[in-house]
Design goal:
Elements lengths: L1 E5 L10 E5 L9 E11 L1 H8 L15 E8 L12 E4 L2 E3 L5 H4 L10 E2 L11 E5 L3 E3 L6 H20 L7 E5 L3 H12 L3 E5 L3 H10 L3 E3 L9 E6 L7 H6 L1 E9 L12 H5 L4 E4 L5 H13 L6 E5 L3 H9 L6 E5 L1
């Protein structure tokens, strides 16, 4: 089969990905083998390819927003999914189930967690495997390409929104407006929030307003109102001070990315006093995924996608890095 591997992590325009021919993987105990129908292109894939995230598996196949059809089952793969089912493969792939974090329901913090497209091969390929316990049923009414971004961009945006502790009917600031942000915004809007978007991309500002944002301005510009909560999706530490300065008293800034450039010095009075908070987001739990996908089944989300052939995975990541599209890119084998 065709698969893309991270051979030499480095700047995306220097070719860290290499297209290769490899055997179709065999599903191990408890695993499912899926034929990849679509795979989203996530900024985390870019961080893995460029080496911002330390390589866990040399030559790994990126991709963790996978929509696939089950074509084979390994031993002891459970009863939930059968051959022919359409399922989702997301970032979280394994947790120990026994540590203090797993026991208290915070499996996203498990020290023994493993991830698709980082610790194990992912969906930039024609076939992929997934532990059945970490596969997800998918909502009806969406095309494969629309479902793919839900499996990380959607799930992480949902968790980031929860971490932001937005009060009912509150004013939410969103910094950066790519694949994850444009889905989280719709969840917040469906719950009655007022949305204000800060992004450098004129196309993204247009998309934000079309989806129902009350305002859209430059990435570091102040919003027209004080914010009850904010989420930083752009991996840019320089945006933390203006985002904190835009918060009302007692509000929370949730940082959604797995990687963030350095944060400049903060001024306590201007940025943190009056009980403003910063909260990070670390992966997600399976419960987060199931809750979000159930929400997507009840509320039809508008998923803005840009399709690329599997052979164009390197170009899709380069276009993501250079901000050449609004919404999400998706690979279609």
């Amino acid at each position: 089969m065709t698969a893309w591997r991270v051979i030499r992590p480095g700047p995306i325009d220097e070719g860290p990905l290499q297209r290769t021919r490899v055997p179709v993987p065999e599903p191990g105990p408890g695993e499912l083998l899926v034929r990849v129908l679509a795979c989203g292109v996530c900024r985390t894939d870019l961080h893995v390819a460029e080496g911002d995230l330390e390589v866990h598996r040399p030559g790994v196949v990126p991709g963790h927003e996978v929509v696939g059809e089950v074509v084979a089952r390994g031993p002891d793969a459970g009863d939930e999914f059968g051959v022919g089912d359409r399922i989702g493969i997301a970032w979280l792939r394994h947790t120990c189930g026994q540590c203090a974090y797993c026991v208290r329901g915070a499996e996203n913090l498990c020290p023994y967690s493993r991830y698709t497209g980082w610790d194990a091969d992912g969906g930039y390929a024609e076939f992929a495997t997934v532990p059945a316990d970490y596969a997800h049923p998918l909502p009806a009414g969406y095309a494969d390409t629309e479902l793919a971004p839900l499996l990380c961009a959607g799930i992480i945006g949902y968790r980031a929104l929860r971490r932001a502790a937005l009060p009912p009917g509150g004013r939410l600031g969103i910094y950066g407006f790519g694949g994850s942000a444009h889905l989280a915004a719709q969840v917040a809007l469906a719950r009655g929030a007022e949305i204000h978007v800060m992004t450098r991309d004129p196309q993204a500002r247009e998309l934000a307003l079309a989806l129902g944002a009350a305002s859209a301005q430059g990435a570091a510009d102040p919003p027209p109102v004080a914010l009850d909560a904010a989420i930083l999706f752009a991996p840019v530490g320089d945006l933390v001070p203006p985002a904190l300065a835009a918060l009302d008293r007692g509000a929370v800034l949730s940082i959604a990315g797995i990687h963030l450039s350095d944060i400049p010095a903060l001024n306590y009075q201007r940025h943190l006093f009056q009980e403003r908070e910063i909260r990070s987001v670390t992966a997600n739990t399976r419960d987060d995924a199931r809750e979000f996908l159930a929400f997507a089944a009840r509320h039809r989300l508008e998923v803005t996608v840009h399709s690329y052939p599997l052979d164009g995975a390197d170009r899709a990541l380069s276009d993501l890095a250079h901000g050449k599209f609004a919404g999400a890119a998706v690979l279609v084998p």
